[in-house]
Amino acid sequence: MNDLNIAIVSADMSRLDGIGRALASAARRLQVTEMKCTPQRLGALASQLAADILIVDCAEGGDNAAALTSLEQVGMQHPRMAIIILSQCESADFLIQAMRCGVREVLPSNADGAAFDAAIERIAAKTGRSGDQAGRSGKVLAFASCKGGSGATFLATNLGHALAEQGAKVALFDLNLQFGDAALYLSDGKAATSIADVVQGIYRLDEAFLKANMMQVSPDFDLLAAPEDPALGLEIKPEHIDALLALATRHYDYVILDVGRNLDGLTIRALDHADTIFAVVQASLPFVHGAKRMLGIFQSLEYPTRKIELVVNRFQKDGALTIKDLEAACGVSIRLTVPLHEEAAEAAANQGVAVTALAGGSPIAKSLAGWAGALLGKAPAEENHWFNRFSRFNRILKRA
Question: Signal peptide position in this chain (predicted)?
């Protein structure tokens, strides 16, 4: 494996030394260069930079807008160089603005060697230089809501159940940490434990400990619930998501992430791991507006277009907006639609039972079963326009 060239920039010499010591513990070989400079002046020195990864220390405050403008100039001159910044600011707005300026990773100002190592491995994986892919087998599917009420949680939970019914081993992580209720769609009782319990014992993390804290929906479907107390969600960090997904993808065929609508450092980290992100919309103008904003954010995060799929939930063929209307408005092709069938969906949600188990003959259950079958590469049981479109897409993915 070739060495990675790392350049560190900070206005504080002691910080430069500290970051250098943290990088010294990395699992891969690194060539590290240190440069004493403020982030705001870095644009003027862009021509002097030559590295695979640039680590910029913004921990001492200053003008963040000027620093990001400077980094954008650096990124334009060195488009193949990945940028990591260290900052005390971790708001969603700052993270998105940073990503739009070409920053790949935002780490806390006190990041340790393990955090640097994980970030470097994520960047290396995106650029095809990772040495840590052999242990992974499961696929990660993330569900994001383009607007509140899209039905993303309903689809995530019910697709998970449909996959398990067809023989896949499935885990679902409810990462809507303040308002997550995925367990209610699959059970009439509360989950006894949650992701917060796993994080509190993260030093014990192994397959047995993870499963002990999950709700068993069926023999092949486990769910890790969001905490009942929203305050406990604040204790969950992006590095915990790294550890959980590294373990889960070794033991499950599919790991489904319900990330809700809010994008922050934790949910962005989760989306980084996803093989496919299903952005859920409905056929109305408010959802179209939300979809366009979310697609713009995903573009800023440099997610490849093949990673993103718009899913139109509660779709009616005779509705005011057609698929062509939605495609024209959002600027992307739509390959996935799930039909409206309020009776079956409401009955399943109210009883805490998957719709494929409660009303297997309903249009929505058939659609979900077809979706699961397409993901698993199975032939459709019957001719279906929706399924044929998705099946062709699935075959394309398999060749990619």
Answer: none
